[in-house]
Amino acid sequence: MVLGLLSIPGVIKAFLLCSGTGDCPLISLQELVDLKMLQCKRVVNGECSPGPGMVCAQLARGGMGAALLSDPDKIEKILSTLVKGTHRPVTCKIRILPSLEDTLSLVKRIERTGIAAIAVHGRKREERPQHPVSCEVIKAIAETLSIPVIANGGSHDHIQKHLDIEGFRQATAASSVMVARAAMWNPSIFLKDGLRPLEEVMEKYIKYAVQYDNHYTNTKYCLCQMLREQLESPQGRLLHAAQSSQEICEAFGLGAFYEETMRELDARRADFLAKTPEGTEEPTEDTTGIIKMAVRFDRRVYPPQVTPKMCLLEWCRREKLAQPVYETVQRPLDRMFCSVVTVAEQKYQSTLWDKSKKLAEQTAAIVCLRSQGLPEGRLGEENPSLNKRKREAPDQDPGVPRGQEPAVPGEICKKPFVALENGEESLLEGW
Ligand SMILES: Cc1cc2nc3c(=O)[nH]c(=O)nc-3n(C[C@H](O)[C@H](O)[C@H](O)COP(=O)(O)O)c2cc1C
């Protein structure tokens, strides 16, 4: 069995997308599971496969995990508690210790906790990826234990193509292999038929990234990993300079693909919105007199230059009302934000909390607009006066970018709404 382990959310996405046709039945994710991933189903050859449903304790990573390696009592306690506390199989990943004797003693104690399998990164805690991986120590562990041992650390020196994975498994006498960097450099490592050319893999990856709305910084990171030594090439320089998915596409000659995909996605969104009944959430007024609705701001359903806050400001101006005032609080527990907007002495608020102050303000503006049946600026919605205003020279103050002052936990951030000239918002911030 071949197993992939990677933790950076965008890398995970890249990895899942690109390995879709490969021979990698299990992908291990650590605690950083992207929300978008949670909403996805993995489809393998047309069938839907359930997630691995496994708990993995990682004692191999630099920092706290690896530091634990010198405290076997604590390791044993943690693993025993985990094994007893869940009906799912618990696995564990370690690095090797300075001496073989200590390593074997540790893995035997780990095995006794009842874990289902152990992954061994064949390097010591202080060793870097360029240090040779110790196949002999992994082999000694595999020969000592009766639970499955997963060999790890072979990328570069041992694993450069699919066939090498089995070679590494044999060299370590392990039952399976976990691949990280080699999969990041070229995800087609999992194809039994052999590696696909990098240009082909990168193009396929970029197309997936655009179609599935991957954030460009993740896409860029993954492509940099694939380009590696070629980062100084003209294409590498273009990639390095890219500041959006569109610029990444252009760097790879996929500008037309980007445009076309955006048109398709916009059309699909507009179509979806047209079919989605709006205002299903009835506004309610609570005892404090605040009008509340369970809504959230989704940037994707608005044209690039339009936001609910702009619509609300525009409406207030037309009605000769004072401009909206937003008061935002941050909940210390999970650092989520909630904003209350006051318009004509009435307060409006969403019952749902947001990841950033900017998002919370947009959400509050939606509650105000929606509860009054006003246009919010969503795609497919008519709002001619707003568009007209944008074409004309806007009289908003462009000098103060919104939401740049961080909200201190528990603190109320009170400030009148100031719209940017270009209406630009960093809406993925905090995603
Ligand atoms: C992008 C990336 C993310 C990783 N995340 C984790 C992690 O969350 N936990 C962990 O124990 N190791 C992590 N690793 C280390 C790998 O699992 C692996 O131990 C190491 O890269 C050696 O395997 P390789 O030679 O196949 O790359 C990560 C490695 C990479 C490249």
Automatic annotation (TrEMBL):
Region (Disordered): 376-410
Location of the DRBM domain: 308-373
Gene Ontology cellular component terms for the protein in this record: cytosol
UniProt xrefs under Gene3D superfamilies: 3.30.160.20, Aldolase class I
Biological process per Gene Ontology, one example term: antiviral innate immune response
One Pfam family here: Dus
Ranges annotated as spanning the membrane: none
MF-aspect GO terms: double-stranded RNA binding; FMN binding; NADPH binding; protein kinase inhibitor activity; tRNA binding; tRNA-dihydrouridine20 synthase activity
CDD domains: DSRM_DUS2L, DUS_like_FMN
InterPro entries: Aldolase_TIM (IPR013785), dsRBD_dom (IPR014720), DUS-like_FMN-bd (IPR035587), DUS2_DSRM (IPR044463), tRNA-DUS-like (IPR052582)
SMART domains according to UniProt: DSRM (SM00358)
Protein name listed in UniProt: Dihydrouridine synthase 2
Organism of derivation: Jaculus jaculus
Highest classification ranks of the organism: Eukaryota, Metazoa, Chordata, Craniata, Vertebrata
